[in-house]
Amino acid sequence: MRLGEIITAGVLALFSIYLMVESADLEIGYIKGQGPGGGAWPFWLSAIMLVCTGFIAFNWYKRTSPPSRSTEPVLDSYGWKMLLQVGGGIFMFIALIDVISMYGAMAVFLLYYVRFLGRHSWWLSLLLAIALPIAFFFFFEGLMRITMPKGMDFTEPFYNIMYEIIY
């Protein structure tokens, strides 16, 4: 567990630095009259993630966190099972984006995760699977003016209704 903690922190730190460098190709500051530049959110979120990995590494060095003192394996059989179930769900989410859109794939993933992995009620699962993609649609498309992948043409009628609400 101790080795797994520092390896994970290192990988996340490298990934944070990579994202910071890539997002710095765009404006990362505030553009007068327009708002944050195109690279602002990815850059600053990656910077926060990099700082957090520094705290993880510090706690690992000082052995102040339970994982930094543990000699247990990183993943037991249940951990591997959950990794495969969640990783498989994320893989399917990514595969479905070009077919049923970002928001449709999000709804399917949430339904899978909340109902089948989380074993919550159908009522809660359907509520989250419908409400969260709609909320994210209005956040990204309406407030942020960021267009997400819309999938194949058969999803167009749904988005036409949603755009009429925004505009």
Description:
- There is one protein chain.
- The protein is built from 6 helices and 2 strands; from the N terminus they run H-E-E-H-H-H-H-H.
- It is mostly helical and 167 residues long.
- The radius of gyration is 20 Å and the shape is flat.
- The model has no long low-confidence stretch (mean pLDDT 93).
- The chain has helices spanning 2-23, 40-62, 66-69, 77-117, 122-143, 156-166, and strands spanning 30-31, 35-36.
- The protein folds into 2 domains: 1-73; 75-167, no CATH class.
- A two-stranded antiparallel ribbon has the order 1-2.
- The protein starts with a helix and ends with a helix.
Number of domains: 2
Shape: flat
H/E element order? HEEHHHHH
Distance between the termini: 52 Å
Structural class: mainly alpha
- Which percent range fits the helix content? over 70%
pLDDT average, as an integer? 93
Radius of gyration, in angstroms, nearest whole number: 20 Å
- Uncertain runs are none
Strand order of the largest sheet: 1-2
Q: What topology does this entry show?
A:
Blueprint: H1 2-23, E1 30-31, E2 35-36, H2 40-62, H3 66-69, H4 77-117, H5 122-143, H6 156-166
Antiparallel strand pairs: 1-2
Helix pairs in contact: 1-2, 4-5
Task: Output the keywords.
two-stranded antiparallel ribbon, 167 residues, single chain, mainly alpha, 6 helices, 2 strands, 2 domains
